[in-house]
Amino acid sequence: MRERILVTSALPYANGPLHVGHIAGAYLPADTYVRYNRLAGADIVYVGGTDEHGTAIEIKALKDGVTPKELVDFYYEDMKTDFKNLGISYDNFSRTSLPVHHKTSQDFFLKILKNGHIERKTVTQAFCPKCNMFLADRYVEGTCPACSAPDQKGNQCEVCGKVLEPIELVNPKCITCSTTPEVKETFQWFIRLSDFQDELEVWMKSNKHWRPNVVNFCLNWIKEGLQDRAITRDLQWGIKVPLEEGKDKVLYVWFEAVIGYVSSTKEWAERMGKPDAWKDYWLDGKIVHFIGKDNIPFHAIMWPAFLLGYGEYEGRKWKLPYDVPANEYLNIGGKKTSTSRNWAIWLGDFLKDFPPDYLRYYLTTVAPESRDSDFLWEDFQKRINDELNDIIGNFVHRSITFAYNNFDGKIPSLDKSLLDDDDKEAIKNMEEIGTKVSDLIKVFKMKDALKEVVSFAKSCNRYFDKKEPWKLVKTDKAKAANTIYISLELAKTLSMVLNPFLPFSTEKMLKEIGISKFVWDDSAKLLLEQGKSLGKPEPIFSKVPDEEIKRQVQKLDNPAPMKKTLVKKEEKPMIPFDEFAKLDIRTGKIISVDDHPKADKLYVMKIDVGEERTIVAGIKSYYKKEELIGKKIVAICNLEPATIRGVKSEAMLLAADDGKLVSLLEADKEMKTGAKIR
Ligand SMILES: [Zn+2]
Ligand SMILES: [Zn+2]
Q: Domain TRNA-binding: where (predicted)?
C-alpha cells in the first residue's frame, strides 16, 4: 500500500519578506522530503500558508500606515511568489484569514471546551491608560525577567527563548505611547495543558525516531509541569471567540495558527473536488511538521494537546505528529539573522541575482539540522564553483558533450560482453546510490544525503577519467561506446537522485538525456534507449565570480533601508455633482434577516425603504440577526439589481469598512423610512 503522508511547513507571519534563514529552517528540507516521496510513489500532500493574525501583524500595519488586511494581502502574494520562484512545491498555500480557517479554529475551541479542557478565568493584564486598551503580548516591551535582556517583547524572549506574559516583563512600556502599563482585571479562556501531561510524556518518550534535540527539549518542558495557557485575547484583528460572552475577544494566534494546517488541507481537498479527502491524512496518515526550533513547544507539545483535547472526529482519533524535524538557526556571517536590524539575506533579492538551485544547493550543504550553522558568501561561492559546477555539472556536461561530438549526438550502444571491472563497479554504484540517498532523506538527514550524491558524482568523474574515452575512441570504438553509454546512465542517475534537491537544473539535465518523466527506482536501472538522439548539451551551472561575492558582502554590510509595505491605492476619479444626485439614497428599516441558503457569509434581508425590497449583504461575520432586525439603515435604491448566489438583491446597504470591522450607517430611530438622503 502507498504510504500516506501529510507534510506541513511552519506558517510564516505575513508581516515581512522571507529571508534565507526561514528557508533553511522549515521550507527547503520539507520540499526536498516531499519531492523525494512523490518520486518514490507515496500518497503525499504538502500544505502551508500565511499566518495572518496576531499583534505582529497589527503592529507592522500600524507602523507602515496600512490596514492589517492590506498588509497581509501584500505579504501573502509576496511570499507565494518567492516560494514559487524557489520551487517550494506546496500542494496548497493557504491563509489563516480565510473563512475555512476561522470555522475550523472555532470548531477546535468549542470541541475542546465541551470536553472540559478549556476554562474561563479572571486574569490581570497589562492595560494602557493612555491608549485605553489591554496590551496583548507584543504591545508591551521590556526587560526579560529570566535573562535580563533588554527590549524584549511580551510574548517570548528572543535571547533566552522564555515564553512570557507581558506583565512579567521588568520596566514594561506600551509600544504605542511608551506609557508604563497598569495592571487591570479581565477574563480569558485558558487551555488546561496539565490535563495532557502524562499522556504527552509517555508519547514523547516513545518518539525514538525523533531528533534528540527536539525530544530532550520537550521532555524538559514537560518535566517542569505544563501550565494552563490563555488562548484568547482582547483584540479586534483575528478569529472571534464563538461565544456571546467572548464577542470582544479573539483566539490567540498561537492557538489558531497550528490549526491552519488542518484548514489548508481542507482547502486543498475542496479544490481537488474531494472535500472529505483531508480526513484520510489527519485521521489515518503520517503527519510531519517541518519547523524552526523556536516553534518546538507549539508543535510538539501544545498542538498534540489540542488534538488530544478535541477527542474523536467522526469516531476516529486525530493522528499525533509522526515527526517534528525542527531545525536550529542559520546565522548570516556569524551573526544571528535580525529583521529589525536588517541583518538578513532576503529571498527575493537573492533570486534576482542567482538561480534558485544555487540557494537550494548551498542551504542544504549548511543545513542547521543539529546545530546552528552559518551562511557565508565566500563559502557559498566555493560550494557552487568547486562542487556544483566542477563536480556535478562538469560530469553531466562532459558525458553528454562527448556523446554529442563522437557518436553523432546519439546514445551509443552497450556491449555487455565487453564490460570490465571498472564498468561493473560504476554500474554497481549507480544501482546503489538511490537507496543510500533515500535512506537519509527518510530520516530528514538532507545534508548527509546530498553529501552522498556529491561523492557519487566524484566517483563518476573518476570513472570517466580512468577510462580516458578521448583516447579509447581512436583505438577501440566499441569500448569507448560502452564507457560513454555507462557515463550517460550515471549522469541520468545523478540527475534523478539530485532532483529533490535541485528540481530546476536536473530537469534540464534529464531533458538533454531524453528523459521527461521518471520514478525514484529508475535511478537504479540501465534504461537509456541506445541510438536515441541527445539534446544539445549546454552548461547547466556557471561559476560565481569574485566581484559578485564582493558585491553581495557589501550589500549585506550596507543594506538598503527596509521599505514600507506599499499598497497600491485605487485611483478614485472625482465625479460631477449631477452624477451623485442621480443616486436614490433613502433611509430604511430592516424587517427580517435570514441566512443565505447558498453562502456562509451572506444574509438575505427584507428592508422597508418606503416599499419592501429584498437585499443580499455580506455582513454575517459582523452582525447577529437580532442586532439587525429593526435597525434604521441607509440604502441606495436605484442600482441595477444584482443576483448574488441565486438571490436577487434590489438595494445596497451603506456601511463603513476599515479592513477589520464593518459598520452599518444608521439613521436616528425617529427618522421615518423612505426619507431621501441628499
Ligand atoms: Zn499606550
Ligand atoms: Zn530572556
A: 579-678
User: 157-203: per-residue pLDDT in tens?
Assistant: 988 888 888 889 999 999 989 999 999 999 999 999 999 999 999 99
pLDDT at 40 exceeding the cut of 70: yes
Instruction: Please tell me the distance from the alpha carbon of residue 392 to that of residue 454, in angstroms, as a whole number.
Output: 7
- Going from the Cα of 330 to the center of ligand 2, the distance in angstroms, rounded, reads 20
Question: Per residue in 50-65, is it b (16+ CB within 10 Å) or e — as a string?
Answer: bbbbbbbbbbbbbebe
Which secondary-structure segment (H or E) carries 289?
A: strand 286-292
Say if residues 259 and 101 touch (Cβ distance below 8 Å): yes
Q: Helix 394-406 to helix 446-467 angle, to the nearest 10 degrees? A: 40
Give CA–CA dist 72/78, Å, rounded.
10
Expressed in angstroms, the distance from the first to the final Cα of the chain is 71
Q: What is the pLDDT of residues 150-161, one digit of tens each?
A: 999 998 898 888
Q: For the chain, which domains are there?
A: 4-106+253-332 (3.40.50.620), 112-251 (2.170.220.10), 376-546 (1.10.730.10), 577-664 (2.40.50.140)
User: Which sign does the torsion angle of CA 206, 211, 216, 217 carry?
Assistant: negative
Most confident of 90-99, 339-348, 665-674: 90-99
Q: What is the pLDDT of residue 547?
A: 97
Q: What percent of the chain shows pLDDT beyond 90?
A: 81
Binning pLDDT at 50, 70 and 90, where does residue 571 land? low
Counting ligands in written order, which one lies closest to the CA of residue 140?
1
CA of 133 to the centre of ligand 1 (A): 8
Tell me the pairing of strands 316-317 and 312-313. antiparallel
Report whether 166 contacts 154 (CB < 8 A): yes
Give the mean model confidence (pLDDT) for residues 523-546: 95
Cα-to-centroid distance, 230 and ligand 2 (Å): 20
Return the closest-CA partner of residue 310 out of 284, 291, 282, 290.
282
- Supply the pTM of this predicted model: 0.82
Are 501 and 39 a contacting pair, CB within 8 Å? no
Q: State the binding site for ATP.
A: 339
